[in-house]
Amino acid sequence: MDVLIKNGLLQSATYFIGNYIIDCGDGDAILKVAKENNIKISGIFLTHCHIDHIYGLPKVMRRFPNAKIYCSEMTHKGLSDETLNLSYILPEFSFPFAYDDNVVELTEGVHLIDDMEIEMIICNGHSNDCQSYIIGGNLFTGDALLPFAKVFTKWPTSNKYLAIDSELKLRQLADVRRLTIRSGHWQK
Q: According to the model, what pLDDT value does residue 187 have?
């Protein structure tokens, strides 16, 4: 089952792919979809550590305490750092990260997780911890590629030149492999 959740915070997006989710926005909405579809969330793939992509972690992890959190080493570091995850801007969404034992740090390349092939692609620019994932015929780009908008590069760890390179790399990859782009934000 593929489901898109349109989160309210900064119009971020959460995707269900089977019993996995990509980014962890609105915890209540995620838990509602999981309950309605009898899904036990096994894992969460994070595209980067910004608060609009992680603020649902406490609720989801309380309900599914054995779920794994898949991300890069840099994203893992940012989960506990309010400067890197930008929670200092939205303190009402801030939370102490208490799930280090659940984190599985991935490196760029292909990984087999529960018989599902996942390809992780480092695509820094929007921030210094961005990664995208190829799962099936989908390319989950987080904020590294937004088909309807220019990538935002004004954060402390942004780099507009790397963002341009990453966006080009992801567009070419989607074209060559005929992947459906699933970005980290939705358009009104």
A: 87
